[in-house]
Amino acid sequence: MLVPLNPILYKANKDNYAVIAVNVFNLETIRAAVEAAWEEKSPIILNFGELLGDITDIYDFADIVKIVASKYDIPVCTNLDHSLKYEESIKAIRAGFTSIMVDRSSQPYDINVQETQELVKIAHSVGVSVEAELGHVGLGEEYEGENKDSLTDPELAAYFVERTKIDALAVAIGTAHGLYKGTPNIDFDRLVQIKKMVKIPLVLHGGSMTGDQQLRKACELGITKINIGTDVDIAAMKGFNSQNIKPGWEFSKRTDLARQEMKNKIRHYIRIFGSDNRA
Ligand SMILES: [Zn+2]
Predict the structure, then answer these.
(1) CB-based burial label for 155 (10 Å; 0-12, 13-18, 19+)
(2) How far is ligand 1, taken at its centre, from the CA of residue 81, in Å?
(3) Residue numbers of the domain that contains 218
(4) Would you name the residues annotated as active-site residues?
(5) What is the mean pLDDT of residues 251-275?
(6) Is residue 278 part of a domain?
(7) How remote is the CA of residue 82 from the centroid of ligand 1, in Å?
(8) Domain count along the chain
(9) 279 occurs within a structural domain
């Protein structure tokens, strides 16, 4: 069933586990994520990136999720990931998304507060949850040169949450998006400090290639949502590029193998994050 982000993460925050958010963009990827969650009896968050609107129409996407989610008795959330444009956030709400991530993390602090506040007011008036980011999670390919200034300040985070009334906060504590140049290191001390100051659910972006151990520890220390894009994409491509596929219905066979590999990877992370049997 389709639900907002808020109840999914509220429960995760109370019972100390995290829920995976997977990047999806078509029927096959949506099914891979929802079936994996169903088999693990876990809640699931479907991340649709704003830029993916060029590949799949946002209204079509929302309709497909509604159909698929209605067939499974587990909590499913549709989240517009990294929404940079006001218009796209509104479109997602109108299309029936149950959550939006308002990303103004590259903007000055005051603009981040102001624009997030405005969208929270709109989203909450129709029961849609809002995630926002303070500090900035950068790109893995620039990881080695990344400076510490972009990490989340615990005190400012508490103030940001109080002012914006968001449902979940994405924190910058040492992970990055996409493939890493170098090894990711999570600043766990910072996470502990943030957790002391901020009572709403915390979100970790850039979970791929961070390693099971670090991710498990992040869950134990209070992260409640972890975004996994690249690792699931790599698994899908491994399936899609499988050897020994004979020509003839090749595309459909490869698509099915990609879906199976995605499922395996998602089920793996569900168990690492501890959300299995929590649906
Ligand atoms: Zn992200």
Answers:
(1) exposed
(2) 7
(3) 5-273
(4) 81
(5) 98
(6) no
(7) 6
(8) 1
(9) no
Domain assignment present for residue 147? The answer is yes
Model pLDDT, residue 73: 97
Cα 102 to ligand 1 centre (Å)? 11
The DSSP result for 91-111, as a single string, is HHHHHT-SEEEE--TTS-HHH
pLDDT tier, 146 (very low <50, low <70, confident <90, very high otherwise): low
- The answer to the question of residue 115 being in a domain is yes
The alpha carbon of 248 and the centre of ligand 1 are apart by a number of angstroms equal to 38
Cα gap 19→10, rounded to integer Å: 11
**What's the gap in Å between 84 CA and the centre of ligand 1?**
12
Query: Measured between alpha carbons, how far is 171 from 194 in angstroms, rounded to an integer?
Result: 9
Residue 255, Cβ density class (10 Å: 0-12 exposed, 13-18 middle, ≥19 buried): middle
d(CA 162, CA 182) in angstroms, rounded, equals 35
- Strand 223-228 versus strand 168-171 pairing type: unpaired
> Per residue in 175-211, pLDDT tens?
999 999 888 899 999 999 999 999 999 999 999 999 9
- Would you place residue 39 in the very low, low, confident or very high pLDDT band (cuts 50, 70, 90)? very high
Model-wide pTM > 0.90: yes
